[in-house]
Amino acid sequence: MFESLTDRLGSVFDNLRGKGALGPKDVDEALREVRRALLEADVALPVAKSFIDKVRERAVGQEVLRSVTPGQQVVKIVHDAMVETLGTTPAPISLAAAAPVVIMMVGLQGSGKTTSTAKIAKRLTEQQKKKILMASLDVRRPAAQEQLKVLGEQTEVATLPIIEGQQPVDIAKRAVQAAKLGGFDVIMLDTAGRLHVDEALMTEMADVRAVSEPHETLLVADSLTGQDAVNVAEQFHGRIGLTGIVLTRTDGDGRGGAALSMRAVTGVPIKLLGTGEKLDELEDFAPDRVAGRILGMGDVVSLVEKAAETIDAERANKMAAKMKKGQF
Ligand SMILES: Nc1nc2c(ncn2[C@@H]2O[C@H](COP(=O)(O)OP(=O)(O)OP(=O)(O)O)[C@@H](O)[C@H]2O)c(=O)[nH]1
Ligand SMILES: [Mg+2]
After folding, report:
1. Which of 107, 180, 214, 223 has the fewest CB atoms inside 10 Å of its own CB, making it the most exposed?
2. 111 lines ligand 1 (CB under 6 A)
3. Which long-range contacts (CB under 8 A, 24 or more apart) does 3-7 make?
4. Domain boundaries, the chain
5. Is the distance from CB of 139 to CB of 166 less than 8 angstroms?
C-alpha cells in the first residue's frame, strides 16, 4: 500500500538531504515533487492543492535550524501536515449507545462489505465480549445472505435466519426485533452494493437507515479505487451521513491517495483497515503510522522523531537564552 508515493517522496527527500540551507526555490522544487507524487497516487486535485498550500505556508519563512538538515525539517512539515489531513487521532468504532447498537455497512459492489462485517463482528466478540447479531440485507445478489451465514458459522457469530423474499427494510426491522428479544449488544447490517452510486441504492440505504437508526454508518471502500473514491464517499455522506470509513485491500499495491482524499473531502474518519482476505486481517487506522508509511516507513518516521526532538531542544534553548536576557 502507498508504495509509489513512498518511493516518490523518498527520492525528493534524498535530494534535499544533502543541502545545507533551504531557500524558497528549494521549497518550491520539493513541493512540486510532493504534488506530483500525490497526484500520481490518485489524491484528488483539490486535496493535493490544499495540502501543498498548507506545507508551503509552514515551510517558507521558517527559521533554518542549525541542528537538523533542511531536508529533515521539510520531512517533518510534510509528515505533520499529512497526519493532520488523515486525522490526528485514531477513531475506534463507537458502541456508546443503548443496546442493541446498530452498525450499518454501506458501499459499492465488491468493496468488501460482507467480509468487513464478519471481521468487525469477530473482533468485537473476541476483544470486547459483545454479543453480536449479523444480518444480510442483500437481496440483489443470489447467495449473498448465504455468504454471511457461512461467515457467521466460521466466526461463531449469530446471523439472522434467512426468510426468502423478504425485502431490506423488513429484514432490518426484523433484525432489530430479534436483537432486542435475544439480548444482543450489537447488530451489524450488511447491505447490498451497486456498481455505481445510483438513486435506487441511495433510497434503499436511506430507508434502512430510517428504520434501524444506526449508531455507526461505515462506508467500506476499496483502497485500489482511485479518484472515484472521493465522489462515492461524498455522495454517501451527503445522502445518508457516514460516521466512519473502512478501507479495504490495503494489502494490495494500491496507491493510498483514496484514503487521503476521502478523509480530507468528507471529514469522516477512517476507522479501520482491511489487510487481507482472512477474517482476522483487520487493523486500527493509525494516522501517524499511515503517514509514516506514505513517507517511507521506518526510516522517515525515526527521522521525523529525531528532527522533532532536536527542533524542540533548540527552541527551548533559544527561549531560555531570551529569558536570561530579560526579553520576556
Ligand atoms: N486482499 C483483500 N481482499 C479482501 C479484503 N476485503 C475483502 N476482500 C475480498 O474481496 C472480495 C469481495 O468481498 P465482499 O466482502 O464479498 O465484498 P462486498 O462489498 O460484500 O460485495 P457485494 O456484496 O457483492 O457488493 C472477497 O473475495 C474478499 O475476500 C481485504 O482487505 N484484502
Ligand atoms: Mg456483500
Report:
1. 180
2. yes
3. 3/253, 3/255, 4/37, 4/40, 4/41, 4/255, 5/37, 5/38, 5/40, 5/41, 5/255, 5/256, 5/257, 5/294, 6/293, 6/294, 6/295, 6/296, 6/297
4. 3-86+296-324, 101-289
5. yes
Tell me if 113 CB under 6 Å of ligand 1.
Answer: yes
Residue 220 CA to ligand 2 center (angstroms) comes to: 11
| CB 193 less than 6 A from any atom of ligand 1 | yes
Q: Do domains 3-86+296-324 and 101-289 have the same CATH topology?
A: no
Q: Which residue is listed with cell 533542511?
A: 70
The rounded distance, in Å, linking the Cα atoms of 235 and 229 is: 10
* Assigned CATH topology for domain 101-289: Rossmann fold (3.40.50)
Torsion angle (degrees, nearest 10) of CA 159, 165, 167, 173? -50
* CA 297 / ligand 2 centre spacing (Å): 33
State pLDDT tens for residues 207-265: 999 999 999 999 999 988 877 888 999 999 999 999 999 999 988 766 677 888 899 99
